[in-house]
Each structure stands twice: as C-alpha cells, then as structure tokens.
Design brief:
Elements lengths: L2 H4 L5 H27 L25 H29 L2 H25 L4 H16 L1
Length: 140
C-alpha cells in the first residue's frame, strides 16, 4: 500500500472533532456565566429557603421528645454552620476568578482550534494540543 492511499481519509473526521470542540466550548461558556451568576457555591441544598433555624437554649425542663428534637435541630444547625463557613472560605479564595481566567483562555485557544480542525490546516494538531493542555489545567 503506498503512502497516498494511506493518507486518503474523510474530512469529516476532523470536522466531527471540531464539532466536539465546539460543544465543549459551549459548556465552558455556560460554566463561565454560571460562575458569574451563582458563584462557586452554586445552587445547593440551602438555596431554596430551607435553612435550619438556630435552636436556642436547651430545654432543661422539657420532655424527652422535646430534648430529642432539640438535639437533632442542634446537630442540623451545626452542620449548616460548618457548611456555610466552608463555602464562605471557598468563596473568599480565588477559585472563581482562576476558573474564569482559564475559561477565557480556553475560549481564546479553542475558537482557532475549531477553525483549524474544520479547515484541516496543517497546524491543527498544535492548536488541538494547546486546547487540551489549557482545558485540562483549567479543570484541575
């Protein structure tokens, strides 16, 4: 088999990969807007007005059932507070900004990579590797 027949391939292999990259970039844009609107906390269990209330003082003269309910609500309140403290620390870190920076870099490398793969330019592999590296670093 000679080299010319081995290199004959359908242009749709590269175009299918370009379409795949385009879908990945759409998800990157969606993530970029999601982070901007909701922040790194996103939509969580406590986003719908079902935050537990502070149980207050222990019912020393209460029944056993009241004391059990108090212990349960106290445990739920402590879990909620520790979760909110953890989310506040995460929000104060620069994770959102770093993620958004890498999303923009992914867009800047991804759009030319899509064009290169669609037209099957000889530099398409370099742009594809660059897109993969930037995308993977941004995910980590």
């Amino acid at each position: 088999m000679d080299i010319n027949t081995m290199n004959d391939h359908s242009p749709w292999w590269a175009r299918a990969f370009a379409i795949f990259l385009g879908i990945m970039l759409l998800f990157t844009v969606a993530n970029l807007f999601y982070l901007e609107i909701f922040g790194i906390n996103g939509i969580n269990h406590y986003s719908f007005g079902n935050e537990p209330k502070n149980p207050g003082e222990y019912p020393t003269n209460g029944t056993e059932e009241e004391q059990r309910k108090y212990n349960f609500s106290l445990s739920e309140w402590e879990d909620y507070r520790s979760y909110m403290d953890m989310m506040d620390e995460l929000e104060e870190s620069n994770v959102t900004e770093i993620t958004q920076i890498f999303a923009i870099l992914t867009l800047l490398v991804g759009i030319p990579a899509i064009a290169m793969f669609w037209t099957q330019n000889e530099k398409m592999l370099y742009f594809g590797i660059g897109f993969g590296v930037v995308s993977m670093i941004g995910e980590v």
